[in-house]
Every structure is written in structure tokens, then in C-alpha cells.
Amino acid sequence: MYSNISDHTHLTEVFSTKHGAVFQNDIDRCWQVNFAGKSASFDYRNLLKLRTAVYRIDIEQRLLDSTQSPDVEIIFICACDHCYVLSLAQIIALRDLLEGTFVMLELNQIIYDRLHRVPAYI
After folding, report:
1. What per-residue string of b and e applies to 89-115 under the rule 16 or more CB within 10 Å gives b?
2. CA distance 85 to 121
3. Angle between the 88-115 and 44-56 helix axes, to the nearest 10 degrees?
4. Digitized pLDDT (tens) for each residue of the chain, 122 residues in all
5. Buried b (16+ CB within 10 A) or exposed e, 39-63
6. What is the rounded distance in angstroms from the CA atom of residue 34 to the CA atom of residue 59?
7. Environment class of residue 22 by beta-carbon count within 10 Å: exposed (0-12), middle (13-18) or buried (19+)?
């Protein structure tokens, strides 16, 4: 499911870097990840799967590997239509983008909980 990136009226930026951005789409109830020239929409479960797949890649091991293997990873999320073919530098950038996104989502939840907490009456 691709979202029309030219219509940002229903998108709220969650986090961005110079390499990409993540937007919350309240109408479609999904998150739009704009990265590596691709715009892909994920529900929350698949966004978590993407983060897990990116974090499973051992960047240090790949950089220290002396074989002639290419420095490209294919990230495929099961039950999702999106696939990324990324260099190690792009994987690091995507990892930063996803890390910042989840920090912002957690921060928003903490703020919401604090503002809407019902005081306990004794």
C-alpha cells in the first residue's frame, strides 16, 4: 500500500534525518517510511518487524569480513509487500531513522500518559 507523498495534509512527521523520514498517517492508520528513494507504508506490527530485521544485521561483522561478499543486504519483511536492497551505509542510516522514530513514539506515549493520567482519590 503506497501513499501519495505529494499530499502531506494527513501526514504527521514523527522523525526525520537527512537520509529519510517517517510520517504517521492517521487516516490510513499506518506509518509511511520515506527512505532510499522509496516511500512505503507499514502498519505498526510491520514497522516493528522492519526494525527487528534491520537490527539483526551485524554491521561490525560485515565490515570486518575479509571475503569478497558484496556490502549489500536485502531486507524483506514477511507478510509485507516491501523489500529493501541497501548498502551497509544505508543500513546504518535506516537504523538511525528507525531508532529515532521509536524514541519519539515512546516519548509521545509518555507525554500522553502524563497529561491524561486520572488522579487517584484517597
Report:
1. ebbebbebbbeebbeebeeeeeeeeee
2. 55
3. 140
4. 334 444 556 899 999 999 999 999 989 999 999 999 999 999 999 999 999 999 999 998 888 887 767 788 999 888 788 899 999 999 999 999 999 999 999 998 888 888 887 665 55
5. bbbbeeebbebbbebbeebeeeeee
6. 22
7. buried
Phi/psi region, residue 24 (left: phi>0; alpha: psi -120 to 50; beta: rest), is beta
Q: For residue 21, how far is the Cα from the chain centroid?
A: 8
- Contact between 11 and 32 under an 8 Å Cβ cutoff? The reply is yes
Distances (CA, A) of 67 to 55, 70, 72, 73: 22, 9, 13, 15
Q: Which three cell numbers stand for residue 78?
A: 514477511
3-class state of residue 86 by DSSP:
strand
The CA distance from 17 to 36, in Å, is 12
Spatial separation of the C-alpha atoms in residues 9 and 105, rounded to whole Å: 20
